[in-house]
Amino acid sequence: MSGARVAEGMMLFGADWNPEQWPEKVNDADLRLMREAGVNRVSLGMFAWSTIEPQDGRFELDWLERLLDRLDAASIGVNLATPSAAPPWWLLDAHPEIQLVDAQGRRVPGGGRLSWCPSSAVFRHYATRAAAVLSEAFGRHPALSLWHVGNEFGNENAQCFCDECAIAFRSWARRRHTTLDTLNRAWGTAFWGHGYTAWSQITPPRTTRNPPDPGLALDYRRFCSDQLLAHYRAEVVAIRGAGSTVPATTNFMIAQGADAIDHHAWSAEVDVVANDHYTVAADPERHRELAFSADRARGVAGGGPWLLMEHSTSAVNWQPRNRAKGPGEMRRDTLSHIARGADGALFFQWRASTAGVEQFHSAMVPHAGVHTRVWREVCELGAELARLAPVTGSVVERAEVAVLWDAQAHWAMDAARPPTIDVAYPLLPERTHRAFHRRGIRVDVLHPDDALAGYRLIILPGLYQASAGLTERLDAAVRSGMHVLITALSGIVDDTARVIGGGYPGAFRELLGLRGEELLPLQPGQRVRLSDGSTAERWVEHLTPTTSRTTATFSDGPLRGLGAMTRRELGAGTVRYVAAVLAEESFDALAGALTAELGIRPPAAATGTAVDLVRRVAADGTGFLFCINHGAEEAEIAVYGEDLLTGRVARGTGAVPAGGAAVFRERRTSLSGGHHDERGQS
Amino acid sequence: MSGARVAEGMMLFGADWNPEQWPEKVNDADLRLMREAGVNRVSLGMFAWSTIEPQDGRFELDWLERLLDRLDAASIGVNLATPSAAPPWWLLDAHPEIQLVDAQGRRVPGGGRLSWCPSSAVFRHYATRAAAVLSEAFGRHPALSLWHVGNEFGNENAQCFCDECAIAFRSWARRRHTTLDTLNRAWGTAFWGHGYTAWSQITPPRTTRNPPDPGLALDYRRFCSDQLLAHYRAEVVAIRGAGSTVPATTNFMIAQGADAIDHHAWSAEVDVVANDHYTVAADPERHRELAFSADRARGVAGGGPWLLMEHSTSAVNWQPRNRAKGPGEMRRDTLSHIARGADGALFFQWRASTAGVEQFHSAMVPHAGVHTRVWREVCELGAELARLAPVTGSVVERAEVAVLWDAQAHWAMDAARPPTIDVAYPLLPERTHRAFHRRGIRVDVLHPDDALAGYRLIILPGLYQASAGLTERLDAAVRSGMHVLITALSGIVDDTARVIGGGYPGAFRELLGLRGEELLPLQPGQRVRLSDGSTAERWVEHLTPTTSRTTATFSDGPLRGLGAMTRRELGAGTVRYVAAVLAEESFDALAGALTAELGIRPPAAATGTAVDLVRRVAADGTGFLFCINHGAEEAEIAVYGEDLLTGRVARGTGAVPAGGAAVFRERRTSLSGGHHDERGQS
Amino acid sequence: MSGARVAEGMMLFGADWNPEQWPEKVNDADLRLMREAGVNRVSLGMFAWSTIEPQDGRFELDWLERLLDRLDAASIGVNLATPSAAPPWWLLDAHPEIQLVDAQGRRVPGGGRLSWCPSSAVFRHYATRAAAVLSEAFGRHPALSLWHVGNEFGNENAQCFCDECAIAFRSWARRRHTTLDTLNRAWGTAFWGHGYTAWSQITPPRTTRNPPDPGLALDYRRFCSDQLLAHYRAEVVAIRGAGSTVPATTNFMIAQGADAIDHHAWSAEVDVVANDHYTVAADPERHRELAFSADRARGVAGGGPWLLMEHSTSAVNWQPRNRAKGPGEMRRDTLSHIARGADGALFFQWRASTAGVEQFHSAMVPHAGVHTRVWREVCELGAELARLAPVTGSVVERAEVAVLWDAQAHWAMDAARPPTIDVAYPLLPERTHRAFHRRGIRVDVLHPDDALAGYRLIILPGLYQASAGLTERLDAAVRSGMHVLITALSGIVDDTARVIGGGYPGAFRELLGLRGEELLPLQPGQRVRLSDGSTAERWVEHLTPTTSRTTATFSDGPLRGLGAMTRRELGAGTVRYVAAVLAEESFDALAGALTAELGIRPPAAATGTAVDLVRRVAADGTGFLFCINHGAEEAEIAVYGEDLLTGRVARGTGAVPAGGAAVFRERRTSLSGGHHDERGQS
């Protein structure tokens, strides 16, 4: 990440616009409506390859130039997409081998999108040529604000198993492991007699009658992410080679606990972190999932501003039951992203499609047109975001609690044939974030390699694989006063997906002062009580404290009387372990006990618990307190300052209506205190 | 449909008979038993290709001729099958390419049945040659009563995705859309950049990582039905070319809401509409599903008599749990079909197979032989059907309520990536039919192109796609006094599966006098109350009345306070809308309110609600009131006339025993009154 | 089965040891720990092909020789594996055609295990060459105690559908059926026109749009088991050809009701019956499943001693939720197998893998090392088994109840398109065994061809297919005083999977004195009451008694008032039928009534019902009463003799602690009495 600013002094607002899919007169209307709504940014051309290059090497760009000119005239910036998400039929017809092969060995035919093989030299040739042509044509166009390279890398092509990938994977594996001996050891191929005696024997983990070797499966996920990144880089090189210096990015999919690619590794390669996020209809607390995803996105952005590249005004079209958003919900969602560091919020898409797979996806202009609630709310939101211009460039106040998340740990757990099917990687991080969110406590989401200093409490929720050096850094941090909570399913394997012997959790047992003997998945519906009143489900562990002491025991179940939670005092801090998957309400209680003990509080006092409070702080110390009320009753916030949305000034108390929001600009104050409370100063 | 009569003056009774699967002496016994049971019609040869043509071009027909002669001697008519349902191994071995390719690209191997590709020129050659040979040999045989072309077209081969189909589909698409521009517009290919630049790029919607484009998927269903129909026609041409003028048909599968083919389009091509129907073990109200399917079959037959080509004496073998029928149930089922217009009822099959995939399918002669309840009931039924000869040729009295059903709308909904998985096409028509059936109100099932005149109430239950001209015809009908009820999920797309913009339901919003803004699928278990006491589930819609008035509002849920039902007075009639999927009991209540308001009543008064009452009327005005008692108590019917089954005469009141049936021949009366009530005349 | 003894005078104890997967120094530690644990037998080399033969034809055996020498020095015997379970990559690379093709036509790629085609000539060449090389090298080595040929034949390769199998299947079918006419009749190919006119048309039952013909599907299962057996034999021939006379076997998978191969047919070919067994985490009564599997294994071994080749110290890794065993549970499991005839109990595996697919499978040495409960229990168990040396060679006392089990009946039911999905073959045998096990009554599991004499009660629980001659042998046995209980779903088809006509159950209706008319699967949740208070579920049958009398009728449901159970007196015995699947508790009650009526009692009196009591009897008449207490309270057993585990002597009463076990050596007594009770003699 080059640290390019998302935008200069304005909160971005707009959408994917696909004018090539509509008649000219609709385009005219669109431009008028965009002004009405306050749109200042659109993404163009994502699926326009067949329009841009209708035949091999014949490019038609006039239409696009006209649009860029008109957008420029309208002061609407453009994220110009390279079109690789949607290769045209002439290319698929001539080169079916650009399409990925699935784990069953089936080449995916044309007709969808994004199913190209990331190792395909032919595809890379065509994709980079198109990128270069666009860069030459528009790389210096005044409307061009950001390159939007491809689309949602990995969404349909997270893994390809073709022979071209096999060849590339052998090279990748050789670079990583140097010798076959090292590789055989790393992957543990001796088990089931899979020892390789020639590099050419290495193949992708295609479906057999058994699960793949975990070491191989993990490396293959890494390889696939690297191949996609290599493709991304090649497109950027083509853009730069054609002379454009405009920042470039691609839209990540940090949402719902997914890791199609390793966002941390990618973040160094994009000029701006951009993310797509859609709420989950089936989740009654979907705004908490949003908060977690936004916190993850900010973590990937290194804490600085990022761009919400896609979200929706109302329903999406790809969930089993695509719930429409209620009145005010779009606004709360958008402001929640901005509160958590987004310097702009775009939608997929501008105008609802009437045909195609996404015909029932909501848009800024719905099927029913502008005499609709959705359109009215869109216009109101555009006006409000304009009033939030002062917020841009500010950073979200550091939280006191951090949660570690690592795509590598995620993939390692996916790669295992696990002791139970009931604990997938995202479960524990999600449950952890949600527990604090329910109490109004902000959480930063860090990568294990990020600096840990400055936090009161660091949590490793099921961090299945510990990256190198993490244990030592945690040890040092604890000695200097930090508190660490590690949960079951953490630190079990090393970076080759190999179990660390000698007692679970191998990576952390010395730090924790305990030795785990056995992992005990529970059966469906089985619950275990703990001596502190907690309830465990899905998973418990048999441990023996060494240098730690037991703070709770199992009251029943297979480990009755044995230790369930431990605490070790170490220097100025503590390290705690929970040898169980706690039920949601028990994890909530644990979060409550920890925050009480450590004196961790929400960023401001508020009535009720339904208000999400996040403070962004500008370079000059100005605070912006975002207050988003997800509840059914008006809330009162202890705050001083002007609500940028309404212009009303709060003098000690600010009201936020049920389902509403406020953004208070707070008086400048010291940043050093962590908490930002002006009460004493008023 | 040529309008050939099903049979001349007798109620057909019999089964599929597969004598080639049994020893000669069993055939002898079968012929004796057929006489005992009153069989007057059998279907022969459906799976006999390998017996008829044991080697390429070598036909062995003597055995068949002998059987036809013996059947003729026994006065048993024959539906002679062309054998295309079961290509022999020598053909599969020489031409594996006659088998269909599935959406995954896998060619289905031999060993099943009916899996031939409808575009295969090779298969058509062999199938039509066999048909011609049979026609030459037996086309004038006195036993031959009906050609039974193939079997259940589309059951295993509703769609093929092979390259031969791809070529045929390109021609089909060219005929339909003329130019690629038109086609691209129709299918909305611009979305996701699927624009075709050459006809050769068009391929069947094989499985990709995404759902197919709805416009393409819909056209492919149409194409497949057309290809199957072309094959059917080719076989008929071969039969006619060999000189036979005996009527021809094939057995449809109008059952359980399925539309493997477009029965309406096919009905013009068959000389007699024939249908296969099997009750659904898991459905506690399976007799209502039967009634709906029979009403659909009659609708396909244009209201005239049709033939029940297959049903079962007891259990089938292909459901998860194959329930056996209880005492009297086969009789009620058979008579229910006849009540609804069938002029005969045949079974699959005559004698239960001991081997093969259908070895546990019931038959007229069960595994256990003739000392069985099933055989006794078969013989009693045969005797009863003989007494119903006077009924043949009569037509079912026109209902006052009609429901529109359209395979095109069905396929369009299947082709969409829908807002919710919880509302498949058949749900709303089925729920509608069932609501009226529970109240004893008869329903005709019409195709949208059928004449609408003469009905009091027309219902469009989730008619997702409106065919051309329907809105105008409804408008005219309403102005002249008809009442129309349209439910949610109707009229959303045009005939290219494209959403009609400007407000839902695009096709009907002017007629309805409202504008819908948004579609709101509900989550599982979510219920919404309406102000009239109704409950909605699965789906609600946000609408604004324009020229209509709101008759019920949502009392809670996402649209609290907004309109849920509307009514527009238009000329002498009304148009109503229900902007929700009503729970079954609420839809029942709505049906009750409508019938009360419009004065729609059952065809005769009866005690209780368990008696299904249907009147057929002969050309001379004689009525035949079918009374089928599905309840556990004797019912009394207000009727005058002789029960053809028992010979007993009802003078104002007829009794129908629990689980029993009666068919009263009513005195001749005027047909014009719609209702046929002699009470005043007695 | 040659009748080789499992071992000479010692109870085998040990595990699969995979030293090639670990560094040398771990091997050194392993040998020390094996002595500590009392290990006297290890299995070597199962997955070591790539180590033994790293390149085509280059064998490296020195490492193995050193290990054998060291094991010999440590007095640890070796089961030396031929390595065919895990073909090396160089072989897979050169000959991908050795891998099986699945029913969809997909060749399984390398990367798993055991997926070789049993018909592959190439694979057989390589596998037998490796076996011969091992035999030449180690066939006379003093450590070699048993050849362990391959591993779990059929686990991943129970069926292959490749063209090489197709060719072999044609030969197999020709040998079995001689002519195509016979074959066509046997398979009932006339149905659906599948009649073959050339042998070359016969293909494996690859997946079509329909289920396969039952006759074909059943023969294909037989063929596949035969092909696997041919491969086993070929490996043994190679071993013998190289001069080794050490007994040979392979590990069966008699567990959880599975029949990957026909163990009865295979038992004649192995020198010792060996079995793998793992308990089922999701089954709360998993010790009963263990008992049934062990009784099946003993039945396959003809009643004599057998070897438990694999079980687990704690969790496995391949179930959805891999439950760890509780304290004492491993010991109870091991002793339960020994009680039921095992002369040794080995584990998979010695040392827990840290990598590979089975990294979370428990072992004798866990991940956490030797300071663990599991290791302590392993050492205690090793010491105890040493004290059980006197038990070896003894045989399990004949039970009074026998249950018939037949893989052929199992496969026949699997091959059918059945009337219901709710009754798979193992259900009724399992429910039967469990009912008696709950009452402490021992059950022998016999093959239908086994001698039936000597039992009081023989049960045919859902023996879907009756083998030739069984009915006559049952008839004779009953006349001479035996009692027979036959349940629903027995005797329905013959050995070609063809329904036996004339009334169900065709094979037994004369013997039973009844005639069944119809099979009536029930719907989910549907229950039917019987006049004796029983409850039926899933399935009832309509029958008419002929020479039997009805002992219970259906009180409700579709057969209200008709017979549900019958009894026929025949000579000195009785034959009974249950025309329903009884609910578990009702089957338990029936078992109780039968045992009471026939005076069948447990082998010894005990308090409570949680103690599993099994007596083994030595050639000299010494009894060994195994008492395994699965309950939570101490139990008292009426017994005289010394507990071999503790050395304590019981004089009329022996105590077995909660969760504990005892093995009492009883005074020599007559074997003739069946029951072995010394009370009167003390």
TrEMBL record, chains A, B, C:
Q: What class of enzyme is it?
A: hydrolase
* Glycoside hydrolase family 42 N-terminal domain sequence ranges: 16-387
Xref: InterPro entries:
Beta_galactosidase_C, Beta_galactosidase_Trimer, Class_I_gatase-like, GH, Glyco_hydro_42, Glyco_hydro_42_N, Glyco_hydro_b
* Keywords per UniProt: Glycosidase, Hydrolase
Kindly list any coiled-coil regions of this protein. none
Q: Where are the transmembrane segments?
A: none
Task: Tell me which EC number(s) this protein carries.
Answer: 3.2.1.23
Q: Which reaction does it catalyse?
A: Hydrolysis of terminal non-reducing beta-D-galactose residues in beta-D-galactosides
- Note the superkingdom of the native organism: Bacteria
Q: Which residues form the Beta-galactosidase trimerisation domain?
A: 399-600
Q: Which residue ranges does the record assign to the Beta-galactosidase C-terminal domain? A: 611-666
Is Hydrolase included in the keywords of this UniProt record? Answer: yes
State the family named in the UniProt similarity comment for this chain: Belongs to the glycosyl hydrolase 42 family.
Question: What is the protein name for this chain?
Answer: Beta-galactosidase
Q: Which organism is it from?
A: Gryllotalpicola kribbensis
| The organism's taxonomic lineage, starting at the top | Bacteria, Bacillati, Actinomycetota, Actinomycetes, Micrococcales
